[in-house]
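Milestone M4 deliverable, item 7.
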Amino acid sequence: MTSNQVLFGIGLIMVLAVGSQVLASRLRIPALIILLPALGLVAVLVLVTRPLVAFLATARTDLTRSERQFIGWMAPRGIVAAATAATFGTQLTAQHVGGAAKILPVTFLVIVATAAVYGLTAVPVARRLGVTRPARSCPLLVGGEPWVIDLARALHSAGLPVFMWAGPQAQRDQISRAGIELAPGELLSSAVGEGAEVQGITTVLLLTGEDDFNALAGAVLADNSERRVYRLPPRQPSHDIGASIGRDTLFTADLTSEIVTDRYNCGARIVAQPADGGIPAELSLLFLIHPDGVLVPVTTSVQPQPQSGDTLILLASPATTGSQTG
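Output delivered:
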């Protein structure tokens, strides 16, 4: 159990104890009379009711046994239960219905207790049942040139969720026709703001043909986002407006947008292949993808070394591409 889980548990226990005392005193009900039945109710909900409901609801589905068991374990109560108890509990109490005064405090205790149980046990139970998945990288590719779309296809074929964003409508249409999902929003700030939070984007790759745009966007995004932000090297390093802020750049210094575009127009293609040997000289390594789905870019300062099980994203020469397809 991690320190965060311990702190979470201590906090919930304190809330449970204080809340039961406050509600009990407010409703003039001894705390012990409320607490013990509420904990019994929680035990029935967690160990009997929820597993039975989940078992019936997931019958004849394609879920695995472990997935069904995990669904049967998770059912924290929340705002619906609180709102219902507050509405009907008050009305029933006003009508002097027996036991109505206990509805609201018991519901509160059930909410806190189920949140504590599921919050503290969700991760270990998921691991025990084998339903956890590694946090895969989810890159956002900014740019709509043909080679950028080809790169998006290669990353997607390697198993990564991929999003793209481009300004010109013509490029956005090409991205859609290629089957790559567009990030929401017509402005880049929208794509890497709330839209990125919703989609789970972890990395932003600035791959447009405009060096100044890549540098400025990289500086702004890196200062206002927890995501890793990378940009292409500029055509003229002496005029690189991003050099003064020390932002790392993708690939090697000679693989600018212009060079990659020229090579692509001459027949080079971006391919994904297993790391089962050395990298031929005619192929340029762009990215590594580890078996757990973590994307590692080649940068001007870091040259990652392929390991067994990695997937290589390469810029292949026309001759190499032809031999692979043949």
